[in-house]
Automatic annotation (TrEMBL):
It is found in: Cell membrane. The keyword Metal-binding does not apply. InterPro entries: LeuE-type (IPR001123). Pfam families: LysE. This is LysE family translocator. It comes from Shewanella submarina. It is a multi-pass membrane protein.
Amino acid sequence: MSPGPSLAIVIRHTLGGGPLKGIVCAWAHALGIGIYALITLLGLAVLLKQAPLLFNGIALAGAAYLAWLGWQALNAKGGVQDKLDSGTQASWLTAARDGLAISLFNPKILLFFLALFSQFVKAADTVTGQTLIVLTPLLMDGLWYTLVALMLSHPRVLPKLRANAQLIDRLSGIVLILLACRVVYTTLWS
C-alpha cells in the first residue's frame, strides 16, 4: 500500500483512461503478485535468490522498464486531459501490460515474498491452504488498487486531478526514473 511505481502506474491509467483502465491495470498487477506468491509456494523464489545473476537480471530489467515508463511520462504532451480530448488513451492491453510488468519486474516484491511470506508456505500443507497462500495476496492487491482507481475517479476528485495532469505526469515520471536509478544502484553497488 505504500507509494511506489505500482501506485504511480495505476494512477496514470486511471487518469488517462478512467476507472476501468485503472482497474484493468490493478488486476494485472495483482496477477503478478499472485505469480510471485505461486513462485514462493513452489520454492522457486529461494532458487532465484540463490542465483544472483538471474535475480540481478530481473532487477535490472525492471529498472529499465521503470525508466522507460518515467521517460514516457516526462515526455507526455499536454498531460492526461489532452490524451483524453484527442482520443489517444492507452489501450486496455497497455494498461494490463504495465500493471503486470510493474509487479513482475519489481525485485522488492520478490524479496518481500522471500522474507515474510515464505514462512507461511510451510504451514500450507493442503491444497486449500496452498490456494489461500496464492489467492490472499492476489485478491488483497487487486482490491486495494481497485479502491485507489475508484477513489481517484470520483467526480469530485477526477476533475482536480485532470486539471493538474501535466504536473502529475511530470512528477510520476521523475519518481519512476528515480526508482529505476535506486534499483540499479542497489543491484550493482549494494
